[in-house]
Amino acid sequence: MTQHKLFRPSGSKVTIYDNNGSLLLRFTYKSKLYNISLGLENTKKNLNIAEKKAIQITQDIIFNTFQEDKYSPVRKKIGIDTKFFTSISEVLNFYEQLQPNLDSSTEESLQILNNWLSLSPSEFQDLKNLNRFFIYLKSEVKHKNSEKVGYSDRFIASHLRILRSAINLAFKYKKLETKTDITDLISTLNTQNTKEIKVYSKEEIQIIIDEAYGSRSNLQNKKTT
Fold first, then answer.
1. How far apart are CA 3 and CA 57, in angstroms?
2. Are 116 and 102 in contact, with CB atoms under 8 Å apart?
3. Are residues 29 and 68 in contact, defined by beta-carbon separation less than 8 angstroms?
4. What rounded mean pLDDT belongs to the chain?
5. What's the whole-number mean pLDDT along residues 123-137?
């Protein structure tokens, strides 16, 4: 089953997914995960219907009028499937499925990670090649709406924390054969603030001294007059 997140309406607790071309609503209520299949094809018109339904469910939750008996919570069969994840995208999708109501900063990081994956060669998307994926992000991945390539260590590290959480979660639920070395890889990134040291020529140094001396002389003259 192929699912991917489309969007969550502003102010809503419900996320809209594409489930093999059909629209699906996903949310949590009282620590229970709900998947609601709308039986509608993923079209612009049907997305408007899905958005209205998501807002309606959100209002029911807020005003405590949500009728649990109308919907059946998902019975998670995590750990029964013995197939292990092998790609970064599988790990991220699993993370989103278990935590559909994410904060905006996490949503942004997931969007950036998925964009990086879409730009990366297929072999770099394998969990076994995380080190190559890191190198690619630092030196080759293209910027959005720009000709620049590669990102700073700090920028990469700020978003890879979500990937680390997703990998740890997948390992916890026995969806990974072995735990990856992502923590060690992140530790190699230089996340410290670095300030550029300006080197002045002798002529520039003399100009600075003269201007500073002149400012003090003018100030002293004003005080004596």
1. 21
2. no
3. yes
4. 80
5. 90
